[in-house]
Design goal:
The complex is a heterodimer of chains A (295) and B (511). With 295 residues, chain A is mostly helical. In chain A, 75% of the residues lie in helices and 0% in strands. The two termini of chain B are 17 Å apart. Classes of the chains: A mainly alpha (295), B mainly alpha (511). Chains A and B meet through α11, α12 and α14 of A and α12 and α15 of B. Chain B: Its main location: membrane. Chain B: One of its GO terms (biological process) is sodium ion transmembrane transport.
Chain lengths: 295, 511
């Protein structure tokens, strides 16, 4: 398991803890025992933040109004990674559970900061993936990304384009998450990313993979156009796989045709046979029942 | 017998004037909104086209056998569900009341869903739900509150739709089998025709192939998942109007010589064929929506009310021509699909009380309708959707499943499956063998026990829908408990006055 995935898994673990399915209340301790043991020696700011995160992580805690404080922890690259992970989880909960736009906006800003920070811990992908998994989370994730597009899209794209950063995988995962959000904005963003020759191949390949399931005819036309360009082998392979995926999505498969025929033959055919039997019998006596409708 | 004069007071029950009337009425009862909003989703979630195999297997091994069981009982005893069970086994009358009460509770909120349909129908030609049908549904139509604790006031458009629904139900069944037989000549073929029109329209839309691929593309690996097989049995059980007492009541109106087995096959396959057609219609149009909005089909898929009141209107908005016309067709289809199911449940309740009290049909029917209307007002409030969700979940998972289980035990074990099999075979073209006894006595009860056990564990360990405990106790466990308690209370009412084990069409007391 590589580092971003490990940390994403930790975030998910933290979320399960915070949701009450694991150890209650102290979300940070069990995740990062070293943080708990070293807590006394850390700065007052750390202690304050730890107290805040622990308090908010308690079951039934009121999360309203805590978005800014949590976003500040998440955005602070110098902060302890365990604390950031726990704060990130709580921020995700704020975004899902508390209504209104300000909390998603805070999360969006935190995401941008994390992305510009090179996203060393996979925050971007982790947050969005976590959001999209929760009840009603897809809408919230879409809102978060929508806020990025409104205000900080350029910075977000810039963070994806930065080369030499250690977080390429996280950025690829972030692109994949945009695909899971779906919709016109997601499709257009992915097309723009896939078409941007300035981006690393990995990001473009991820964008092509993510747009295939939602591309349909437009996606096919785009990929065919892309295929005519001078592409690296990995990109060309991604384009071919994307075209195949679109065909697979859009055309009725042989298996589907067979099951269609099975359904029609067994259900409608069986019905026809049963009715034929009843009509044949009806000629004998049922339709002209001697009781004539009376007992 | 002290009860015989009372039973005679109400006169002999009207019989179906032709076999097709019974078949259409039973099909109408089985085919309902669930065929449109439940089956396609269940199919897609459980292996797509591969789900047809467990589904057909469940129809053959549980759906049709249970239909035969209920038809045989109703026809043999010539009574509604409680009296039929009483005749079969004195102390089992409560099982019949349990079925009828479960059906009664379901009718109360089912009528509210039909009220939603009426409100949407009135908005159809102008596409009054606007660009955000989901928001229209929850905010403008339902005025949905923040939770079950905030009931809010009565929602008058819903109350008006509810009243309209109950008036419609009353006039459909006011003369029992006689009026039902006429009504179903329209309300059963019409939604089929409309569904066919919508299927053809959906099939010609851009993206239909993508939708149908999602629906039918088989995932064979799912066949190894026991949950998929249980889902198939659940779909069949919920869809065939079993364990509501409806099929028992309808069969009691059949003339003496009736082909029970073939009727069950026709009705079972008709219900399944309708579900299949609805799946084609729903997924072809979902494909259109997915392609147009750059979503996957799964991304736009919803089950239940969300499908017909939010997703489908969104699709209707985007139809290239006559969107208002197709919207009206869609909601008329839903209303005509729903009305047969609704009035069949009311008919089962009314017939049970007519049998029990020996009263004339009209006052009993009016009383049942008024009480159900009053109960339904809870679901026509701002918090009504929350309560509807809770009651629907619990009454189906526990009331209905347990009703079916007790039915199998009483009829299969205590009364004797063999006797009902021989009765069913007496005038049936297709004869059933001893395998049917096995299915009724062992197989179906086993499936129901497993389903019930899994649902019980899940409900106890995970509070349903994240609702507060008090709401789940009041609207969930409370309603289920009330249904059980009332079943025994109703059994005790006049228990010694108007019940006798005699009166079977097939002779014998069953004791």
């Amino acid at each position: 398991m590589n580092r971003p995935n490990l940390l994403t898994a930790l975030i998910l673990l933290a979320s399960s803890v915070a949701a009450g399915t694991g150890e209650p209340a102290t979300t940070v301790g069990p995740l990062h025992p070293e943080s708990a043991t070293e807590a006394s020696g850390r700065s007052a700011r750390y202690a304050e933040r730890l107290e805040l995160v622990t308090r908010l992580g308690a079951e039934g805690a009121d999360l309203e109004g805590s978005a800014d404080a949590l976003a500040a922890i998440v955005s602070d690259a110098s902060e302890d990674s365990g604390l950031r992970a726990a704060a990130a989880d709580l921020l995700g909960r704020v975004t899902v559970e508390v209504s209104g736009v300000e909390e998603p906006r805070a999360l969006a800003c935190a995401l941008i900061e994390a992305a510009l920070d090179g996203d060393p811990s996979g925050w971007t992908a982790g947050y969005l993936a976590e959001l999209s998994r929760r009840k009603g989370g897809a809408d919230r994730a879409a809102l978060v990304v929508g806020l990025m597009t409104d205000e900080r899209l350029a910075e977000f794209h810039q963070s994806l384009a930065l080369d030499g950063r250690p977080a390429l995988e996280a950025r690829e995962a972030a692109v994949g998450v945009i695909g899971t959000i779906e919709g016109d904005w997601a499709y257009e963003t992915l097309v723009a990313l896939a078409d941007d020759a300035g981006l690393p191949d990995g990001v473009r390949v991820a964008a092509i993979g993510a747009l295939a399931p939602i591309g349909y005819d437009e996606g096919r036309a785009f990929l065919r156009g892309l295929a005519r360009e001078d592409l690296s082998p990995s990109l060309r392979e991604a384009v071919e796989e994307g075209l195949a995926a679109i065909d697979h999505t859009q055309n009725i498969s042989l298996g589907a045709w067979i099951m269609f025929a099975v359904g029609v033959i067994l259900l409608f055919g069986g019905l026809a046979i049963s009715i034929t039997i009843s009509i044949r019998r009806g000629k004998k006596h049922v339709f002209s029942d001697e009781s004539d409708g009376e007992p | 017998m002290s009860d015989e004069p009372k039973l005679l007071e109400s006169g002999p029950p009207a019989k179906w004037n032709r076999r097709s009337a019974f078949i259409l009425a039973a099909i109408g009862s089985a085919v309902g909104l669930g065929n449109v909003w439940r089956f396609p989703f269940v199919c897609y979630e459980n292996g797509g086209g591969a789900f047809l195999i467990p589904y057909l297997f469940a129809i053959i091994t549980a759906g049709i056998p249970l239909l035969i069981l209920e038809f045989s009982l109703g026809h043999k005893m010539a009574s509604g569900a409680p009296l039929s069970f009483f005749k079969a086994r004195r102390n089992s009358e409560w099982v019949g009341w349990l079925m009828v009460l479960v059906g009664f509770v379901i009718t109360a909120y089912y009528a509210v869903i039909m009220s939603w349909c009426f409100n949407y129908l009135f908005q159809s030609f102008s596409l009054g739900w606007g660009d955000d049908p989901g928001g229209f549904f929850t905010d403008k139509l339902l005025h949905l509150s923040s939770g079950p604790g905030e009931l809010g006031g009565l929602n008058w458009p819903l109350v008006a739709g509810l009243a309209l629904t109950w008036i419609w139900i009353y006039f459909c069944i006011r003369k029992g089998a006689k009026s039902v037989g006429k009504v179903v000549l329209v309300t059963v073929p019409l939604p089929w025709l409309l569904l066919l029109i919508l299927a053809i329209r959906g099939g010609t839309l851009e993206g239909a192939g993508a939708g149908l691929n999602y629906f039918l593309n088989p995932d064979w690996s799912k066949l190894l998942d026991p949950g998929v097989w249980l889902a198939a049995y659940g779909q069949v059980f919920f869809s065939f109007s079993l364990a509501f007492g409806v099929m028992i009541t309808y069969a009691s109106f059949l003339p003496r010589k009736s082909d029970i087995n073939n009727n069950a096959v026709i009705i079972g396959l008709s219900d399944a064929a309708t579900s299949f057609l609805a799946g084609l219609t729903v997924f072809s149009t979902l494909g259109f929506l997915a392609v147009g909005s750059h979503h996957t089909v799964a991304g736009v898929m919803e089950s239940g009310p969300g499908l017909v009141f939010a997703v489908y209107p969104t699709i209707l908005n985007q139809l290239p021509f006559w969107p208002g016309f197709f919207a009206a067709i869609f909601f008329i289809m839903l209303l005509t699909l729903g009305i047969d199911s609704a009035f069949s449940l009311v008919e089962a309740s009314a017939e049970a009380w007519v049998n029990k009290l020996g009263l004339k049909r009209k006052p009993v029917l009016i009383t049942v309708c008024v009480i159900a209307f009053a109960f339904g007002l809870l679901f026509a409030t701002d918090g009504g959707l929350w309560w509807l969700d809770i009651v629907d979940n619990f009454i189906n998972k526990f009331g209905l499943i347990l009703g079916g289980l007790f039915e199998c035990i009483v009829l299969g074990w205590l009364y004797g499956a063999r006797k009902l099999r021989e009765y069913a075979n007496r005038d049936s073209e297709i004869k059933i063998g001893r395998w049917w006894d096995f299915l009724v006595k062992y197989f179906t009860p086993a499936i129901l026990v497993v389903t019930f056990g899994m649902d019980l564990v899940k409900t106890v360990t995970e509070p349903y829908g994240g609702y507060p405990d008090w709401a789940l106790f009041a609207g969930g466990w409370g309603v289920v408990a009330a249904v059980f308690v009332l079943s025994f209370v109703f059994m005790r009412i006049h228990a010694n006055k108007n019940r006798a084990p005699a009166g079977e069409q097939g002779g014998g007391t069953g004791e």
